[in-house]
Amino acid sequence: MFMRMLIGGAIGALAGLGANYLCMITGGACPLMRSKVVAVILWACIGALLAAVKR
Fold first, then answer.
1. Using one digit for the tens of pLDDT, what is the confidence trace for 5-18?
2. CA torsion sign, 28 to 29 to 30 to 35?
3. 17-41 as b/e: b if 16+ CB within 10 A
């Protein structure tokens, strides 16, 4: 389960970088996605939580 959470966090972090990039090219109005650090941490947590859900 720990490995799944790490992989989910890594995928989420990459999604956070993508969300940050899309936010920047569209004007940067979203305060959560404006900062790379905040976007990566937020999306990594979301990815890890989704990976930890028991199926």
1. 999 999 999 999 99
2. positive
3. eebbeebeeeeeeeeebeeeeebbe
Query: Both tokens of residue 24?
Result: 């920047």
* Distance from C-alpha of 39 to C-alpha of 47, rounded to nearest angstrom: 12
- pTM of the entire structure? 0.86
CB 44 within 8 A of CB 9: yes
Q: What angle do CA 26, 32, 36 make, to 5 degrees?
A: 80
Q: Which two tokens stand for residue 31?
A: 């305060």
**Mean per-residue pLDDT of the chain:** 91
Total length of the chain: 55
